[in-house]
Amino acid sequence: MADQCVLVDVVGVGLNATDTIIRLPHFPAFNSKVEFRSSEVLPGGQAASAMVAGAKWGLATRYVGKIGDDAAGQLQQREMQLAGVEAHWAVVPNCRSQTAFILVDEASGERTILWSRDPRLELLPAEICREWVVQSKLLLVDGHDCAGATAAARWAREAKIPVLVDLDNPYSGVEGLLENVDYLIASGDFPARITGGPSLLSSLPELKRRFGCRVTAATLGAEGVLAWDGSTFFYSPAFAVQAMDTTGAGDIFHGAFAYAVVRGYSLAQALEFSCAAAALSCLASGARGGIAPLGQIETLMRTGRRHAPAFSQEQLESLGSPR
To answer: Three-class SS of residue 65?
Structure first.
């Protein structure tokens, strides 16, 4: 396999999931009944969806993940093939692939996720070929399977390949992973959960100091994204759209950031591009239904309306010079 491995732009190592998207007129109250609007079975998962987005935007992408030998696993394989992503699968016999039921509030587009994952689906270091990782220009991991993600990140670091991580929880072993990460882009509450800092203005610099990342950042949903590069805070407000379904917006944000790094964007440009791609992803159902063409993303960047900023210029200037 290693002899046949070709150089790709981005390799993603991590989760895939098969989502049942259930659209509701409103979120149900306890002990109530609600007639749902629609139900669809669609592919998702953090690293997997990011690789599909990169492929749609013209990158050569590779995905490494694990599935069961069920219909959901076959769906994942088929969708990767259709998207033009080079995929490498560890398949567990007599095992159900990761699945989720996602309840989407029709009025706001916000979602609640109910998920299940068999422990046998953990992607282990022995199931990842080093050449799949080092024959790339950037590695994206999501950290759910920390041992596998850490091994891949170490191989990338040894080969001087930048590592981007998408984290939403402080999984066991995450500190070892973070020591090998260049771009940490986490959910909004992650920095404080790791550092105990009172705000992102203190916890993002602390994460960079502690782990040596090139950039530490937090995505904030409708409030955009805040990043720290060691001397400067970069803040990009979110674009205002009428969301249909926010499922996968963070996955597409990370796929867009990977695209921006490979294409040589500045940090400010990368954050703005990623915010625009994430916003447009909310206009369709499912994690991958709203992956917009590059032209549409660029148009939104030029003409789109932004949500009110979550951070003032004075706040950012207190610890760094905003750009």
So the answer is: strand
For residue 312, name the pLDDT band (cuts at 50, 70, 90): confident
Q: What angle do CA 102, 106, 111 make, to 5 degrees?
A: 30
| Residues 104, 111 contacting (CB under 8 angstroms) | yes
The superfamily (CATH) of domain 2-27+37-317 is: Ribokinase (3.40.1190.20)
The three-class DSSP label of residue 142 is coil
Instruction: Give the closest residue to 245 by CA, choosing from 117, 111, 149.
Output: 111
Helices and strands, number each (H, E), in the chain: 11, 13
The model's pTM is 0.94
The rounded distance, in Å, linking the Cα atoms of 222 and 253 is 13
**Residues 286, 247 contacting (CB under 8 angstroms):** yes
| Domain locations along the chain | 2-27+37-317
